[in-house]
Amino acid sequence: MATLTLLQAVTDALRTEMARDDRVVVFGEDVGHNGGVFRATEGLQKEFGEERCFDTPLSECGIVGTAIGMALYGLRPVAEIQFLDFIYPAFDQLVSEAAKMRYRSGGEFTCPMVVRSPYGGGIRGGLYHSQSSEAYFCHTPGLKVVIPSTPADTKGLLLSSIRDGDPVLFLEPKRIYRTVKGEVPEGDHTVPLSKARLVREGSGVTVVAWGAMVPVCEKAAAEAEGRGIDCEILDLRTLVPLDEEWEAGIESEPQDPDELERLLALLPPRDREAFVLRCLLDLSAKAAAARLGIEPNAVDQAYHRARIRLRELLEDG
Q1: pTM given for the model
Q2: Residues 6 or more apart from 284 whose CB is under 8 A from it?
Q3: Among residues 38, 160, 224, 241, which is most buried (max CB within 10 A)?
Q4: Does residue 129 carry a catalytic annotation?
Q5: Record: fold of 2-184
Q6: Residue among 129, 139, 189, 304 flagged as catalytic
Q7: Mean pLDDT, consecutive 10-residue segments, the chain of 317 residues?
Q8: H or E stretch including 197?
Q9: What span, in angstroms and rounded, lies between the C-alpha atoms of 116 and 150?
Q10: Range(s) within the chain of domains with CATH label 3.40.50.970
Q11: What does the alpha-carbon distance between residue 77 and residue 80 come to, in Å, rounded to a whole number?
Q12: How far is Cα 64 from Cα 139, in angstroms, rounded to an integer?
C-alpha cells in the first residue's frame, strides 16, 4: 500500500479508472494542462491525451449539461466543478435533468456520471470558496451524494461512483486535502456506496459525521473519553442514499435520560440554554427540557429574549 493524502487519492482513483475503462472522460475548468486548481488531475492529460482529459469554458451549466449528454451516449464522464460554490448555474441540469433521467424515461435511459467538487471551509477561501451546500442536493431523488473523509475511502468511493449507473455528486472536503494521510490500496480498490464506516466504537453517545468533521469528532471523542464519556463515531460516507442498516440501528437504540443529563451537566449554563433553544426544532426538545427541570414557558421566554437580542445587534451593527 502507498501512503497518500486525500488529494493524491483522488488523482490515483481517476488514473486507475481511466486506465481500466476507456469510456471515462475527465473535464472541467483548468483540469487539463494545469491539472486543476488543487492539482487533482495533474498529469492525466499528458498520460491519456486531450480527448480524455480537457479544459472547458467557464460555464458550469455547460459542463454538467455536456456530462449528461456524454452519459446518455455511453461514456462515463467525470466533470469537475472547481468549487462547490460555483455549482448553482448547473443546479437545473443536475436536479431537473440528470437526477430524473432514469425515472422520466421509464428506465430506458440512465445517466452514469460523476460531478466532482471541492467543498467546505477551513482554507480561508472567503464567501465564494467555502460553502457546504450538500444539503441542497440531498433532497433530490435520483441523485447520490458521496463525501469521503480518508484517502482510502476517497479512492474506493470515487471508483464506485464512476462505475455506478446513476448520477453521483462526489464532494471532496478540501480542508483535509493535504492534512489527512493514510494507506491506500494500489490498483483496483472499491468501497460500496451507502455503507457507513464505524470510526470508533462507544456505548455512551453516537456521533454522526462526514467529510472534514470526522477527524474533528475523533479529537473531541478522545477528549470526552477523559471525562468518562464513551463516544461512538459513525462516518456516513454516502449521505444519499443513507446506510439503512445503521440508520435503523441508531433509531432503535434506547434513549438513556441519565446519560443526557450527565452530558448536559458538563455544559456551562449559557451553552445549556443554547442547547435547549436548538432543540426547539426537535420533537425530543420537551423531554430534554423536562429532564433539565426547565419549564416550557421558560424555554419560550429564552427563545424570545434571544430574538430580541439578535434584533438589537443587527440594528446596532
Answers
A1: 0.80
A2: 255
A3: 160
A4: yes
A5: Rossmann fold (3.40.50)
A6: 129
A7: 96 98 98 96 97 97 98 97 97 96 93 97 88 94 97 98 97 96 96 96 91 96 91 95 75 56 65 60 52 61 61 60
A8: strand 197-200
A9: 16
A10: 2-184
A11: 10
A12: 19
